[in-house]
Write a structure and sequence with these properties.
mainly alpha, 405 residues, ABC transporter transmembrane region fold, membrane, transmembrane, ABC1_TM_sf, ABC transmembrane type-1 domain-containing protein
Length: 405
Amino acid sequence: MSLLHSACLSSFNSADIKSPKEEDQEPEELTPVGEEQMEVHIGPEEVKKVGAVSLKVYRSYWMSVGKWLALSVLVSLLLMQASRNLSDWWLSHWITHMGHQNATGQNRPSAAVYARQLVRFIRSQSKGKVSPQLKFFLTVYGCIAAINTVFTAARAFLFAYGAICAAVIIHNKLLLRVLKATTVFFDVTPVGRIVNRFSSDLYCVDDTLPFILNIFLATTYGLFGTLLMISYSLPWILLVLVPLVILYFYMQRYYRFTSRELKRLTAITLSPIYTQFSETLTGLTTIRASRAVARFEEENTHRLELNQRCLYIGNTAVQWLDIRLQMIGVAVVTSIAIIAIIEHGQKRGNPGLVGLAMSYALSITNLLSGVIASFTQTETQMVSVERLDEYFTEIPIEPQEGHIE
């Protein structure tokens, strides 16, 4: 991963990205009438923030969604996951009850017992005869499934509505702030930088961020539900999960630092492309008359290359993470299978709960990798909200009242 850092940083020379000292010298201090003097980072070079996305950015998006609407989404997710785990537990309880009822004279029910029970159930259905006990299990299972469907639909509707509300509010705030900006702001800010905010960053807020945030919340709740059910069904799996969680934590932390900075570099190198494209269209006649087409093509190719380097290294970092997660996942599933076999050999626990734990154990690796990947992508997409939030607070605006002296 350190090679990715060095490769990415070496692709930008001193003329492309300024040093911190040079960045501090370039921004001008703009003093809007009626407001306190503030230092804003606008000018020829765009400033790239370093480090984790601040909690203020997450709070800004939370408030854009609406605090009560966002809370309703989290509650609906909790109820959806709880009803899903409850339906799985009820199914395992049903299987355990069938085994104890039909395994007469056997120490432990076998697969043949469940097969005979299934055959009897199919025959009774064809004859129109269903026992009251079977009706009870089917009714409860059907009710739980119906409740899960309701909570799933509510969660999908609330999340989609919240994402639309956030996108509309952020767009309106950005548009209103830019329309009220001072003339000096448009003089010192390239057009491509503003277009980048209204195109690439707003697209992330409209589409990419809600999509990946939905995956992150679903996998996070699914992971907690899975850990709870496994701990209840097969407590010895916790011996494997504890070092697994520690290893996953350091791995995702190491990966997130690189991915976050690459996203910022990608966003910064995209603005010059928009700027040159706009300037080229405006002065196309002059460029052709001056026979400067080759020079502009070379400059455009250079800027595209800088942006594509960031994208390429970002995709390489994703593959780096996937390979290590798959290797760890194979070791984890093998360990869980060994623990389940040992438990079965010692005749501890019932087959329903052991089967439930095994089914959840097969999916826990995907959930852990999904949480890391989706959280990293969510934080990466939150960089767009961070960039938009800069314009909400740092753009100097014209006075809305009084007169201009």
